[in-house]
Each structure stands twice: as C-alpha cells, then as structure tokens.
Amino acid sequence: MLRFIIRRVVVIIPMLLIILSITWGLIRLAPGNFYTAEKKLAPAIEQNLREKYGLNKPWYVQYRKVLWNMVRFDFGDSLKYEGQSVNQILLKALPVSLTLGLCAYLFALAVGITTGTLAALRQNSWIDYASMTLAMLGISIPNFVLGPLLALVFALTLFWLPPALWEGFPSRSIILPSLTLSALYIAYIARLTRSGMLEVLRSDYIRTARAKGLSERQVIFRHALRGGLLPVVSFSGPALAFLITGTVVVERVFSLPGLGNYFINACFNRDEPLIIGIVAFIAIAVLGFNLLVDISYGIIDPRIRY
Amino acid sequence: MADNTSRCLVTLLLVLGLITAGCTASANSKLFFGKSEPPRDNVMRYVSGSEPESLDPAISDGQPEARIYMALYEGLVEYDPKTTTPIPALAERWEVNKDSSELTFHLRHNGRFSNGDRITAGDFVFTIQRGLTPKLGSRNAALAYYIKYAQAFNEGSVFVQDPVNGQFLLTKDFEEDKTPPAIAADPKVETPKPRGPLSSQPGQTVAAEYPTTPDEKPDADTAFHQFMHSPDRLTLPVDEKKRTKVVDANPKLKSAINGKQMVPVEAKDIGVEAVDDYTLRISLAQAAPFFLSLMPHQFFRVVNRKAIEKYGNAWTLEQNIVTSGPFKLVSWKHYDRVIVERDPMYWDNAQVKLDGIIFYAVVEGSTIMNLYKAGEIDAMLNHTVQAAWLDTIAPYKDYMDAPEATTEFYNFNCSKPPTNDVRVRKALNMSVDKKAVGAWRHQMPLTSITPEGMFPGYPQPKGDPFDPEKAKGLLADAGYVDGSGKFDPKKFPVDQIEITINPDGNNIPLAEFIQAQWKQNLGVTIPIKVMEQKTSLVARAKLEYKGIFRTGWGADYMDPFTFLGLYYTAAGNNGTGWWDPKYVALLDEANSTGDQQKRFELLARAEAMALDAQPIMPLMTASARWMKKPYIKGMYPNAGSLFAWKWVYIERDQAKWDYGVPSMTGP
Q: Residue B111 pLDDT > 90, yes or no?
C-alpha cells in the first residue's frame, strides 16, 4: 500500500511538468499580450511594460522561471492586477470555490440519496417516475440555462433570494449557485442510488433480514443502504473534485469571486502567471483527489489489493 | 369650529395623499423596470463592470476603473456631470497662455489627502513625473506626451550635450524641411509630434505671454520657465541600435553628434513646475488647445508621495492606501466589490451627499439586469442594455439613453486588395443603409469620422449617402464587370475579403446585418470571420485582416481631434494602412491656430479629406444604454458616462424623482 502511494506521488511530478509546459506553450502561442487592447499603446509604453515584467528576456529564461516558481509554489505577480501576487489571489478565490463546491456536494448527497432511495422503495409508483423524470431533466439542462432560470423564479418573481453576488458563508446568496451547481450531481446520485438499492433490495441477505422479523426501517437503514450506496461512494470522490474546480460557469452567471471566474478572465487577459498558478492548482487538486479515490477503493472494497 | 375645519382638512389631505401614494406605487411597477425602492442606507450600489486592475490611477486605462478613481482621487479639474468639460476641482482657477502651449493652475489652499496631508503643487509635479517614469509602465502615459520632454522621458531618450561648452544640440538645427521627420516613414515607429510654435521665446516675460488680468501679479519667470521656453533640445533613443538608425538617416546629425555626450532625459526635465506651493505651471511641447479637456483623466489625479515611497506597488492595498477624492477606500474584495465611504478630510466634504458607494465587479449583462430588476443595485455601467432587449427596456422611465462620444465603424485594410482601391471602399460604404442600421440598433446612424452633435460649433462634414446604384458604378469602374461592362457581383473577389469581428456584445448580429445589406444591395456575400478579441487586435495592428475589421473609438477628451488623431500616424490605433502627410499637415495647422472657430474649420477640412479617402466605414454614434433607479439624482447620461460622485444622491421624495432621462441642460 505504502509503495503504491509513493509510486503514485512520484508519477505526479512529471505529469505536472508536462501540464505546465503545455499550458505555458499555449499561452505563448496565443496572439496578443496582457496589454493588447482596443486602444493600442504607444510602442515605447509597450516596451516599458515588457521591460517591467521581464518579457524581453529569452524564452528559456522565462521558462526556467515558470519551473522554479512551480517548485517553490510561488507564481509571482499577476500581470493584469498590479501589486497582487498569484498566491494572494489563489488564497482569496479558493475559499469561495471551496464553500460553493462543498455546499453543492452536501446538497447533492442529501437530496440525491433521499430521492433515489424513495424511488427504489416505491418502484414504478408516481414518486419513482416523477423523481426519475426530474433526474433526467437535471442531467440534460446545462447549468448556464438552469442558473438564470432559478434566478428568474426565486429572485425576480418571488423576490426570495438575491439573483447574484457573494455575501460569504452563511448567507442566502449561496443557495441559488449551489443549487445550480448540484443539479447534475443530484440527478446522477439519485439514479445511482436507485439502481444500487433496487439490486440490493432483491438480494438474499435482505430477504434474510426481513425473515428475521426486523422492522422495515432497520432493513433499509442498517442493511440495504450500506450495500446500495457503494456506487455512490465511488462516484462522490471525483464528483467533489469536479465540484470544487468546475465552478466556472456558475461563478460567472452569479458573479462570484471564485477560482473559475479568475481563471476564465486570466485567459482572456493573457495573464500568464495567474493562468499557470490556477492550472497548477487545479492539476494538483485533480491528481490528488484521484489518488485519494484509488486509496479509498482499496479500503472499501476488499477485492482490490495494491 | 376652526378646529373642526382644520381636522377635516388634515383628514382630507391624508386621504388624498394615500390615494396618490397608492397610485404612484402601482404606476411605478409599470414606469420603472423591477423594484424601485430606495435602499435603507445612504449608500449607492453601482455595477462598475470588470474587476479593477489596480486602484492606482496611473496604472489602469479602463473605463470601469476610471469611475472608481473618480470617487477616490481628484485632479486639478473634474468632468462636468452633464457636459464632461473640465470644471474646477483641486485647482480653483487657471490661465492658458495665448497659443495654448502653457497652463498655469492656482490650487485651493484647503486640499487634503485622506491621511490629512495638504495637497500642494509639488504633489502634482510628483504625480505627473511618476506617471511618466518608464519603470512604472503606465498605459496612460501617452496622454501626457503633449507636455514638454514627457515623451522623451517616458521613452528613455537622451539629450546630446557638448562636453566642452555644456551646450545641448537643438531640434531645429536638424530638421529637414517639408519632409516628415525621418522615422515617420517607418510605420512601426510612432511619429513624434511636430513642434508647434511657442508664443514666448527666450527673454519675453510671463506677463507678455498670458492675457492680462487686473490686480493679478504674473507668476515668476523662473529659470525653469526660461528652460521650457528655450528652443527644443534634440532627443535621441537611448538604445544604441535605434539611435544609430535615426542618426544614419540624417547626415548633418551624424557629423554633429561626434564627440558629444549623451545625457538621459530626467523627470526634472518634464514641463511641470511648482512655481510655489499653490501654483502649478505645465509647459507643453506643442500648442494643444484640447489639453485642458484631458486633464480630468485619471492619469492626472493626484497621488500621495509618502504612501507610494513607503509601500511600493503595495500602496493601493486597503491598509496602506492614501487617496485624494471625495471618498476613501473601506475595503476591496477582489472580483466582488470595492467599498468606499465619505472622506471627512476632503476639502468639499460638506457638498458630498452620499455616505458611501459600493462598486460591484459584475460583467455578465444578464446578471447585471437581474440585480437591477431585483433592486439589489441602483445603477449600472454603460452599454449594459443589449440591443436585443431594447424593445422591452426602452419604454421604461429609468432607461438612460443618450449619445456618447464613441463611434462604431468598420476599418478597411487599405494595404491589401480589394480594399486598397478607394472605389471599392467607397462602394462598400455607399451600399450600406446607415439609417436602417441605426434604426435597428436604436442608435444614431453615422457617416462621418467624428460622432454626431458632440462638439458644439464644429462644422462636421458628412460622408457619402446611401446610394447602391452609384456603388455598383464604382465597382464597375474598379474592374468587376461582365461582358457588357456592367458590374458583375460574381467577379468580386469574396475570397480575399471578410468581415473580421470579435464575438463580444452585439458584434455578430451587426455583422450579419451589414452582410445582408451588401448581399441585398450589391449581390455580394462577404463572409464573417469571428476572432477572439486579443487575437483580432494583433491582426488589426499588423494589417493582416482581410478587407474589413470592426472597431470603435471612445473619446479621450471632448474634442474632434481625439477621433481625427487616429489617422495622424500610420501605426498606433490607425489600423487601416491609410496615412497621408497632407492630412497630418492640416491637423497640425489646425492645432497651432489660436482661434477656435478657425481651428474647427481646419479640422473639418481634414475630416472631409479623410472621408474622401474612406479608410473606414462609419456606422453609428454609440449610445449610453444603461439604467438608474429614479431615486438616484445627480447622475446624467453624459457623453463619457463619467460621474462626479460627490453630486450624486438618493432622493427619498417620490415627487422629486427622475421620470425619464434627466435634463442635460441648465444648472
């Protein structure tokens, strides 16, 4: 087990190197620069800016700096946002994305498992059909449509919740974005729970439990759910990684100061240090979560041994 | 008895009041878009657009930042809330010399920074010198290039001095007559501004230079003032390679430069001088009658030397920042909001009406509209209301629509066929019905280079009218003909031309509209090419685009020259490849004329000349297109969408609300 973990951690290093090199190369290939704007700058001013941010240096010097920054995990100053370092920006943006992602995650688990279980217990009833139809909708409606729709109903018609902006945790402003973000995952989890539960409910050990004379509640909570939720557990690991790093659209629609919003603008702004910083962070997060999931499989499923 | 009557009257009034209140309340929901209840606090909530790059007014050249800077910093002059022309701010009054090449500002004695420091002329000298320092990398620095030796300092140039007698080489000794300066021919290098005449030559007194004012002593004729009025010193690039190139092009200069010493142009050489604590004199390199109108720009807003020297580029962080405007910084939550509050140190604090302002950083148009409708914000930045929503939004009384000093147009690539042929350019321009474009977009159609009706007294020339038949004739002349000599659309090289646009805003539907016009009126289908913005800007700068490029221009200051100056150089913002020394000469002649009417006539002649060459296809004068709640007063849809926040307030009396666009004339 320990050897497996060490081997996986060692593999992460060349992967990061490749990811960063490709990112850096792509930024350099993209036409334009952080100072390119509708109103063109005088050549001398462009020169001053290139000098200031070291863009006049040869490419290998700049590339070396990117790698060295990665090693120290200090990505230097943003080009667009004068006087702010990339690390400061990451530290400010991360809690927002994390809060949003976790809220959506918990919400998805709670609602998804409940509806999935209910649907399985009342198979082919109206509850089953209704929840599975909703799940299908949740999977097929993209969040850039769902977000504005929710805002239209809850913020502009009923005036219950604010339509955008971030008021921190806890506040009413979190509800609509995390609901939008979680819709897809609620749907997946509900479907996974339903099929898992249906399979388990037909199995012999549940029949045994019932035959023993256990109450229905005990059968469900003590025996059926544990088995039925296994697919949900294996899905929820990567889901958490996606929820925390994949908030770009939702952050944009609800104007939230999270990583996704910074990332998309950093690309439009050609803000090289910021793009590299965020890519490095997301890469580490995804690689790390995958490692965690692999490890947890070993713990949950006795058939898997490393 | 008397008691009874008055009681009856009071009751009657109350009932009437309730009825009218009820009526207005129910009418409001139809009059205004969404909730129109004033916020409980005396704090305005404004969406300023994208996240501010920096709170340092020298750094950012963006509009969203400009509006925040207007709350935090003040300059010598401020934009008038209605006309955006300069009005007194930290300068109580000023004088401009006879040929508009020098300005003297008299500062208020009670100006203070947010830390309590007095604001003196020295602070302005520091602000301008710092803004031009090459290391700072200010993107606004070019606005100050009109100041003497400012461009040379910002470009890191050198003077040439004789080590023996200490004399400097002078520009006038090396100028070649009639031909533009040597480097002007190279489109990659910005043409240096030609030196206009200076009214006062060495030896003349200050008193002779300025119009006489009674009981006013002329300011001292200092050694620095003498230096400013001595003939221009020659400046050369500091970079060895570039310098050799310039020197090699001028044999006279090459021989003169031998054995001379290169002296770097320093901050102290720039034409800004603190004559005393409250008198600031700015000497320009050329006559620039429009210079005062660009002085309210953020670049000239005063910053605090102590804070900057102590904290370096971290001086704008909320714990370090020192500001000079009516409001001071409370907090800056990145990608979220900037909160400012009334600054008790501000000299005119008694006039400031709001307790604070929250500037939200929101970019999605629909999100901004949602916030507005839900009553979470009180006003939004310009251009938020998109063309597609106008039919719904325009009838509301809180929709702010007024022409802006901004134009939208298509560039023609004059360096590549087929648009290198002026007949093709004219034909394409004539076959688009600008009136139809304007009507569809709810904006004013435009046929000229300058926006329409923006500059009072300017005799703006009009471009060619809509005339598809004449257009076909021109294209036939250009050689796109069938056997019978008539225009043949099939011969037009649609593979060499495309409408290059970026996908922002309404660019795509507009391009489709124009495409349809050409198809309908000429029978030619020109393809549309969508490019990511920065990618497209590089194509524009290098003239790599095929034929047509969508662009626009917003005035830097309220004068036609801010638009006509686009074609003053071949490089820079020109983007068409059209450049004509005769056009430049006309502009120079205009700017060195003291008489404003004559100047306008000359500028109009230049504009007519450019229209004749048709390097662009004018489309529309932009309109402001934003919304503000009716209870927000003192905010006007002016030509720059720039608001002096100290006069903005929240009106709680419904009778005094704005029902429609507030009057832009009168006090």
A: yes
Per-range mean pLDDT, top range of A67-71, A130-134, A148-152, B77-81: B77-81
- Is the CB of residue A157 less than 8 Å away from at least one CB of chain B? no
Q: Are the C-beta atoms of B606 and B586 separated by less than 8 Å?
A: yes
The distance of Cα B117 from the centroid of its chain, to the nearest Å, equals: 31
Q: Is the pLDDT of residue B635 over 80?
A: yes
d(CA B528, CA B549): 10
Residue for token pair 């927002």? A96
- For residue B367, the number of C-alpha atoms closer than 13 Å in the C-beta half-sphere is 25
Report how far Cα B60 is from the mean position of its chain's Cα atoms: 13
Residue type, B6: S
Contact B534 A36 (CB under 8 A): yes
- CA torsion B128-B130-B136-B142 (nearest 10°) is 20
In this predicted structure, the answer to whether residue A272 has a pLDDT above a threshold of 80 is yes
Residue indicated by tokens 């620039």: B288
d(Cα A83, Cα B312) in Å, to the nearest integer? Answer: 9
- Report whether A131 contacts A118 (CB < 8 A): yes
Q: What is the pLDDT of residue B190?
A: 43
A163-195 burial, b at 16+ Cβ within 10 Å, e below that, comes to bbbbeeeeeebbbbbbbbbbbbbbbbbbbbbbe
Residue A78: alpha-carbon gap to chain centroid: 24
Q: How far is A194 from chain B (nearest CA, A)?
A: 36
B376, A162: Cβ pair inside 8 Å?
Answer: yes
Task: Supply the pTM of this predicted model.
Answer: 0.85
Token pair in block for residue A153: 């109903």
Across the interface, whether the CB atoms of B141 and A45 are under 8 A apart is answered yes
pLDDT at B506 over 60: yes
Q: In this prediction, does ipTM exceed 0.90?
A: no
Residue A105 forms contact with B (CB below 8 Å) = no
Judge whether residue B7 has pLDDT over 70. no
- Nearest alpha-carbon partner for B74 in B147, B146, B124, B144: B124
Q: What is the mean pLDDT of residues B355-369?
A: 93
Quick check: helix, strand or coil at residue A282? Answer: helix
Choose among B155, B364, B575: nearest Cβ to A252: B364
- Candidates B145, B367, B373, partner chain A, best to mutate (most A CBs within 10 A): B367
Is A32–B59 a contact, with Cβ atoms under 8 angstroms apart?
Answer: no
Residue B45 bridge partners (DSSP): B358
pLDDT above 50 for B20: no
Look at the alpha carbons of A290, A291, A296, A298 in this order and tell me if their dihedral is positive or negative.
Answer: positive
Least confident span in B72-76, B334-338, B502-506, B641-645:
B502-506
Asked if B51's CB is within 8 angstroms of A155's CB, the reply is: no
Is the pLDDT assigned to residue B424 strictly greater than 60?
Answer: yes
The structure tokens listed for B477 are 């002349």
Q: What residue type is B475 in one-letter code?
A: L
Q: How long a stretch of residues is chain B?
A: 667
Residue whose entry in the numeric block shows the structure tokens 């539907």: B509
Beta carbons of B135 and A257 less than 8 Å apart:
no
Coil/strand/helix, residue B40: coil
Q: What is the pLDDT of residue B456?
A: 86
Decide: B212 and B97 in contact? Cβ < 8 Å: no
Q: pLDDT tier at A3 (50, 70, 90 boundaries)?
A: confident
- pLDDT tier at B19 (50, 70, 90 boundaries)? very low
Is A65 exposed, middle or buried, given 0-12, 13-18 or 19+ CB atoms closer than 10 A?
middle
Burial class (CB in 10 A: 0-12, 13-18, 19+), A234: middle
Distance in angstroms (rounded) separating the CA atoms of residues B52 and B50: 6
Can you read off the two tokens belonging to residue B105? Answer: 């500002």
Among chain A residues, the shortest Cα distance to B535 is held by: A31
